Amino acid sequence: MEQIYPFPYENFRDELKHYTDAEIIWAQEEPKNMGAWGFVKGRLESVMQEAIVKQEKIFYVGRSPAASPAAGSLERHLSNQETIIKMATEDSINKIIKSWAGISTKLKTNLPIE
Q: pLDDT tens-digit profile of 21-79?
């Protein structure tokens, strides 16, 4: 989706009618409490209902809520980006549903700043 305001209800609905069995996700690199997620979630679900798609709710892939849009280090940023892209393009919808809060900004290893 290239433009979210004004929201392209008719265009999105008309396209979505061709993909009623598709798994629909919203992927963004910003934390869940930032970026477009809060603006588009209800609008996308409204269009999904109008287009009569199987899926009732849109699923989120992105960073978990955070106070800052920055991950805090290049290593974390790259790890998060890789995880978001992999999850959005390769993982099952069940794995996406389980990670509903978003991708954590924590790594399994401690960084010098921790």
A: 999 999 999 999 999 999 999 999 999 999 999 999 999 999 999 888 887 889 888 98
Q: For residue 94, tell me if it sits in a domain.
A: yes
> Which H or E run includes 37?
helix 37-50
The C-alpha angle with vertex 41 and arms to 67 and 49, in degrees rounded to 5, equals 165
Residue 34 is assigned to a structural domain of this protein: yes
Q: List Cα–Cα distances, 51 to 24, 25, 69, in angstroms.
A: 13, 16, 33
Residue 1 lies in a domain: no
CATH number at residue 31: 3.40.50.11610
**Whole-number Å distance between alpha carbons of 5 and 54:** 26
Q: Are 80 and 63 in contact (CB under 8 A)?
A: yes
- Domain extent at residue 44: 9-98
